[in-house]
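Propose amino acids for all 819 sites.
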């Protein structure tokens, strides 16, 4: 062998338990060095070929040792099935190590039972392997503990291969068992104390396991109770004694154990002897994995690291605390916490503190600072489970003070006596003064309370006066903004509204009035934002100022504000169940997906009932007249929403309701006409007035949302055929959806084309003049855009391209309000 590195890799590869494990180790140790890999593989191939009689097992004497010519190739493990070895018949292979095979065997005498039989592999019986096998057999035979697999028998086969028979453990690794049964932290710790008890027993028998890991700690169920069994003492080491009379030479460059669970002194491969504290380190790694689901050092990182780098990581790098590792797991923490039957935050808080200290003490690089025994580690865990102080924590301040007092007992007693005498004298003097001081303090407090009450009253009065002044000033600015807007002085109007909001930001009226200002300029995003803010300030939503805001929120994609506004509307409906609520229904059905708390079918039925009642009471229809006279009444809100109002002829009162047009100075509602009948078909007190053709349109939308498409088509066509409704073409988009849903594809496409044309014509009418009065109210215009988009997506499968003229219109409006 050309170098120590090649020698160490070769010797370590010999200890691999399976060919796959050997290949994985060569991949990590040799890396990209093909020459080194080829040299090591050649050495391994030569080692595996039996060429020296001295390397074959010595059974009953030299005379019975097979010669070179009589050595047969190693039989395949399936050929062992059915083989009889002494009183045992091999039934099934359940394991394979570097030098041994493990079988389930049927013992036939003196009792019949299933056992585990471990035997040296054929053709691998070198002196060192025989010695290690007998050492493992002797180590396990020394044990007499319920958590260590028990040895029943031992012997040598006819072909001179030693074997031993032990308890058959039908279980799974401890980590897998805990995860499969979703054991919580306390249950895992309870099982782990049994492992510590078994390891402590082995140490008392003078045996160091040297390869403690989850796969060597099996858990089986006895009467539905989990029982831990520690197995595989194949690399065990004796303390102060010899486990076998054969020589076991641990190679100078060999590293015994599994790297993920290996102590730093095992990875050191120096003159430092390995003692029981190496097993304590491995126990700490396993406890770390039981708590966090991962080992202290990342498995993939160690697999990908070279041999020397892997040893350096184990020897030098400090692993993170278990609680710190949990906080860096991200989404995986949810899975880990589920297998521990707890919440992620609770798991982290449970591990943080005492369990961190216990784990990190056992993982200390300096073995002198680890637990002195497995029993001490188990004791600290029991202290934790019993909510008692643990020994792993560093000394507390109180502990240090107690030790200091013990070292300086006499001076402290003398000083205490002097201090007590002085305190008694001081207390006597103070007590004599206390009565006079109390009386004086009572008088001072009474005087202070009187002065404070006077100051509080003055401050409250000043605050009310200042609030009233700010409110008045804000109202004057709002009125000024409306006046400037009516005079088409747009920058001045915008500035007035901004000043009013800055002066009284918690007052909803300036926000709502500025929102109306923005709707007049067709600035939808700005208007929606102001409406949302006014809604958050508790603005009442039962006035015409809020007509169309539902559609505005839908247009701008503000679903939370839409839901909040709809909630307030529904609360108002519950207070006036006998009154039709056309405007609320219109706001509800503009959404393709109304909230789940709404029964849209019930609202559709209510709409039909309202239409029937409206037709049966001609005097209650807006403007009176026969049912076919569907023109809106004079001075109705629909006529006034998009034109400026005359200034009010009375002093501005901020508590008045805004005009129905949604713009202009506050004043009387259009509904407050003394000559108009106040009934439940549109006028006050509900404020839900709509002309009949608009009611038919709203009813059609309701039936569309309730999936009653035939009735929706009838109502929408009735509304669209009314020549007295300037915005009748708004019905085309929902009509296209109803026709499409009912299977009338051609008519649906024709209705969508008509909706395209009417929407384009309305946009062109406003081009270059965003403030001009539109033939339809602004909310009809917004609703038309929303429904046209929904219909286009339904019929074509894609959203309509934004009309560039809308962007030009928006920019024109922005230019108007900039100074």
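Proposal:
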């Amino acid at each position: 062998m050309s170098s120590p590195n090649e020698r160490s890799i070769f010797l370590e590869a010999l200890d691999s338990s399976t060919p796959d494990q050997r290949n994985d180790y060569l991949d990590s140790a040799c890396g990209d060095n093909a020459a080194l890999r080829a040299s090591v593989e050649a050495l391994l191939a030569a080692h595996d070929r039996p060429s020296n009689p001295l390397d074959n097992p010595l059974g009953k004497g030299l005379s019975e040792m097979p010669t070179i010519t009589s050595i047969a190739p190693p039989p395949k493990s399936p050929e062992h099935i059915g083989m009889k070895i002494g009183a045992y018949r091999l039934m099934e292979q359940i394991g394979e190590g570097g030098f041994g095979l493990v079988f389930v065997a049927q013992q036939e005498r003196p009792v019949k039972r299933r056992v585990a039989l471990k035997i040296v592999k054929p053709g691998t019986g070198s002196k060192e392997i025989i010695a290690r096998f007998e050492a493992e057999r002797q180590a396990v035979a020394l044990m007499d503990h319920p958590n260590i697999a028990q040895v029943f028998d031992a012997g040598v086969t006819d072909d001179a291969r030693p074997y031993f028979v032990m308890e058959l453990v039908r279980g799974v690794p401890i980590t897998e068992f805990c995860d499969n049964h979703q054991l919580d932290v306390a249950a895992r710790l309870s099982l782990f104390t049994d492992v510590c008890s078994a390891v402590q027993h082995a140490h008392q028998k003078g045996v160091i396991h040297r390869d403690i890991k989850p796969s060597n700690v099996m858990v089986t169920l006895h009467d539905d109770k989990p029982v831990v069994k520690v197995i595989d003492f194949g690399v065990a080491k004796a303390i102060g004694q010899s486990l076998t009379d054969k020589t076991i030479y641990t190679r100078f460059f060999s590293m015994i154990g599994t790297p993920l669970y290996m102590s730093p002194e095992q990875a050191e491969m120096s003159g430092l002897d390995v003692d029981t504290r190496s097993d304590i380190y491995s126990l700490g790694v396993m406890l770390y994995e039981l708590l966090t689901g991962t080992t202290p050092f990342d498995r993939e990182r160690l697999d990908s690291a070279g041999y020397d780098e892997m040893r350096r990581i184990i020897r030098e790098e400090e692993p993170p605390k278990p609680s710190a590792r949990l906080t860096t797991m991200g989404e995986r923490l949810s899975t880990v916490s589920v297998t521990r039957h707890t919440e992620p935050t609770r798991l982290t808080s449970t591990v943080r503190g005492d369990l961190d200290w216990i784990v990190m003490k056992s993982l200390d690089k300096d073995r002198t600072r680890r637990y002195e025994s497995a029993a001490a580690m188990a004791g600290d865990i029991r202290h934790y489970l019993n909510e008692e102080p643990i020994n792993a924590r560093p000394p507390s301040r109180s502990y240090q003070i107690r030790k200091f007092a013990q070292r300086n007992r006499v001076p402290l007693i003398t000083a205490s006596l002097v201090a007590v005498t002085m305190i008694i004298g001081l207390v006597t003097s103070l007590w004599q003064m206390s009565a006079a001081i109390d009386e004086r303090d009572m008088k001072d407090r009474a005087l202070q309370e009187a002065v404070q009450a006077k100051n509080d009253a003055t401050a409250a009065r000043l605050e009310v006066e200042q609030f009233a002044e700010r409110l008045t000033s804000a109202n004057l600015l709002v009125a000024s903004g409306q006046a400037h807007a009516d005079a088409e002085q747009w920058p001045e109007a915008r500035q007035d509204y901004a000043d009013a909001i800055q002066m009284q930001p918690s007052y909803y009226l300036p926000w709502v009035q500025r929102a109306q200002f923005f709707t007049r300029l067709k600035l939808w995003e700005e208007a929606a934002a102001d409406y949302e803010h006014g809604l958050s300030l508790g603005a009442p939503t039962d006035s015409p100022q809020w007509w169309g805001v539902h559609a505005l929120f839908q247009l701008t994609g503000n679903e939370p504000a839409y839901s909040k506004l709809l909630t307030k509307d529904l609360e108002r409906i519950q207070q006036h169940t006998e009154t039709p609520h056309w405007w609320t229904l219109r706001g509800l059905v503009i959404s393709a997906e109304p909230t789940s708390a709404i029964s849209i079918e019930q609202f559709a039925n209510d709409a039909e009932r309202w239409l029937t009642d409206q037709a049966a009471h001609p005097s209650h229809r807006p403007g009176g007249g026969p049912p076919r006279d569907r023109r809106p009444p004079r001075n109705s809100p629909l006529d006034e929403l998009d034109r400026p109002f005359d200034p009010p002829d009375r002093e501005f009162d901020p508590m008045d309701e805004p005009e129905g047009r949604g713009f202009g100075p506050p004043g009387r509602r259009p509904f407050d006409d003394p000559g108009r009948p106040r009934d439940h078909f549109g006028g006050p007190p509900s404020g839900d007035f709509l002309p009949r053709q608009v009611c038919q349109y709203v009813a059609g939308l309701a039936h569309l949302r309730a999936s009653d498409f035939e009735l929706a088509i009838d109502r929408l066509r009735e509304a669209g055929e009314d020549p007295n409704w300037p915005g009748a073409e708004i019905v085309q988009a929902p009509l296209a959806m109803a026709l499409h849903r009912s299977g009338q594809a051609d008519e649906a496409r024709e209705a969508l084309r008509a909706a395209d044309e009417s929407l384009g014509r309305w946009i062109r009418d406003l081009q270059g003049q965003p403030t001009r009065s539109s033939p339809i109210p602004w909310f009809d215009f917004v609703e038309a855009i929303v429904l046209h988009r929904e219909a286009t997506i339904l019929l074509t499968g894609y959203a309509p391209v934004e009309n560039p003229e809308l962007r030009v219109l928006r920019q024109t409006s922005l230019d108007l309000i900039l100074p």
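The chain has a mean pLDDT of 78. Residues 409-486 form the longest helix (78 residues).
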